[in-house]
Known about the structure:
Blueprint: E1 3-4, H1 9-15, H2 27-32, H3 34-47, E2 51-53, H4 61-64, H5 73-89, E3 96-101, H6 116-130, E4 136-142, H7 145-159, E5 166-170, H8 186-194, E6 200-204, H9 208-218, E7 226-229, H10 256-268, E8 273-274, H11 282-291
Parallel strand pairs: 1-8, 2-3, 3-4, 4-5, 5-6, 6-7, 7-8
Helix pairs in contact: 3-5, 3-11, 5-6, 6-7, 7-8, 9-10, 10-11
Amino acid sequence: MITILDGGMGAELIRRGAAASGGLWSAQALLDAPEAVVETHLDFIRAGARVITTNSYSSIPSYLAKGGIEDRYEELTALAGQLALRAAGETKENVRVAGSLPPLSESYRPDLVPDDHQARSIYEAMAIALEPYADLFICETMSSIRESINACEAAKKAALSRKIPVYVSWTLSEKPGAGLRSGETMRMAFEELATLGIDGFLFNCTAPEAIEAALKELRGWTDKPIGGYPNRVSEVPEGWTLDNELETERRVDLTPSVFVEFAKRCVENGATMFGGCCGVGPEYIAALAEAFPE
């Protein structure tokens, strides 16, 4: 039996017309379409997700600054938590809310990670904003050891009052077995984060092939929960940012049935949690739930 995570909130909100693919990205839905955020959470729950992640991935100052509202990042992060908790409360299922602490500049870009002082200040404020609504924290799409330490230390601090778990989720090189996108090895990353008392280790926003290879390594190092939530991006171009001219493409080969086969192999390699990231909608999570019934 595995814990089924949700899919990619940002891409799903864009597909529904509630957010844009650039600019404020998924945070636009917090401003203009909060009901769409709740309904998207609910659709993932109806599909079978038992952990839903807050729509706080782009409620960060660097993205909000594009709309001149960077000073509202704590308010919008808290709203993301409120909407997720509301969705969880509107279902009879036992659903947990994961408070998302994301990259503070761009995904996949270890070269753009802010300095430690700036990062920790923002992460601490975001974690405090999410804490009343979260059952766990997930520091996700972490591309380097330094980025993951900054996020996880802030989450651990905010989690103390209720002793809620803190999970880290790394984004990996597209080449299976090549470590984090920073070039740091999986072993280095695990050893550094294990000293913080992290409660679970995952991989996300990465090709499923890379996640499968990483789980084979990780399973021998810990008895804590491990897992992954891959995306459907074929490859991230070097130098990509949300708003530049470089584009990513969706993998047409990664159908729901193929996604489930990857999940099965990941479970064979120790995964106890599995879901999806960018491009993985409720239909994928429904296929996953059918393959792994409660």
